[in-house]
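Recap slide: Glutathione S-transferase, N-terminal domain protein, sequence and predicted structure.
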Amino acid sequence: MKKITFYTNPYSRGVSVRWMLEECGAEYDVVPVHFGKEMKSEKYLSVNPMGKVPALKVDGKVIVETAAILTFLADMYPEKNLIPPVNSLERGEFYRWMFFALHLEYAFMDKFFDVPSSKKKRRSIGYGDYDTALNTLTEFLKDKKYAIGNRFTVLDLYLTGLLRWAIFAAGVLPKEGMLADYMKLHGTREANIKGQELDQELAKSMGLD
């Protein structure tokens, strides 16, 4: 059995990794990391030079970037069927939309920070602009329960976490409507609820709640 160490803060993107760890039924140790000096300390920078959480250490090897961690875990626990099979067309579709979601996050960030757009910027940046990225996601998820195929995958998990942030933390999306319904549907999964409870306990132990 691989030794998994999870570096996180309960108010970070680590909530999605925690959810995924619970979906996988993984056994793991948690290392809480405070924002600020601790996250930028020499000790933590030796784990992630970017000074960001989450990070995952598996048998001594470090994996960072939320989407990478989630995809790695899905492959690490193939019996959970959280990612399409390698070499399948669905796997290619998964990669397309997982990588698109990274652009979508930056589009949401631009909206949140009120970053002005321009013709030159739309031409140069991968996601174009906020409206284009949002419309693309909306059309993709229209009339769908699951993003890929007919079952829950790690892509649904990642999109749900992203939409939850955009709706409740950033306030750049409405609390009602198709995207909110999609987010609420998958947010009721047992592993997510357990992950949230564990993060609430972690927040209290860190003096954050």
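Strands lie at 4-8, 29-32, 55-58, 61-64.
The chain has two domains: 4-80+191-206, 89-151+153-188.
(End of recap.)
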